[in-house]
Amino acid sequence: MTVAAILKHKGYQVATVDPAARVRHIAAILTERKIGAVLVMDATEQLLGIVSERDIVRALFANDTATLDMTAGQLMTRAVQVARTDTTIAEAMHMMTAGRFRHLPVVDRGVVIGIVSIGDVVKARIMQQENEVDSLRAYVSGSG
Predict the structure, then answer these.
(1) Closest by CA position to 51, among listed 77, 33, 32
(2) Whole-number Å distance between alpha carbons of 104 and 122
(3) Distance between CA 72 and CA 59 in Å, rounded?
(4) pLDDT digit string (tens) for 99-134?
(5) pTM to 2 decimal places
């Protein structure tokens, strides 16, 4: 199973902001949409970075309430790892675990087409394992 299968199931919606967007606005988007991160994109749809809840919390600790007036461009993580549509669930899980991040943009031919979270990846992996167990049970019982 690949991240393309996750996107096919969950959808291709991606929350994006301009680099000039204020953290106040980003926090509102995260809250309203019940998501954990937004992608920072320029006018040409080029991926510049990502801002997550974790980024905001760290900035609040370092800068107190001045964080709310910072911009996405100031706060974003610039070195964003991305997946391709053919990235496997296991590869995505490894990338996220090793990099200690929870959101992975998916890119196809240089264009962001979606984003998967660690929750999406874990859910897909559990479904994959359940299917494997069911197949093994069917094989052992002779009905497969």
Answers:
(1) 77
(2) 13
(3) 12
(4) 999 999 999 999 999 999 999 999 988 887 777 777
(5) 0.87
Q: Which domains does the chain have, with CATH numbers?
A: 3-141 (3.10.580.10)
pLDDT tens by residue, 1-15: 899 999 999 999 999
The answer to whether 112 touches 45, Cβ cutoff 8 Å, is: yes
The C-alpha atoms of residue 63 and residue 135 are separated, in whole angstroms, by 53
Instruction: Compute the distance between CA of residue 51 and CA of residue 39 in angstroms, rounded to an integer.
Output: 6
Place of tokens 């002779």: 142
Pick from 25, 72, 78: nearest CA to 48: 78
Closest-CA residue to 117 (of 88, 138, 96, 133): 96
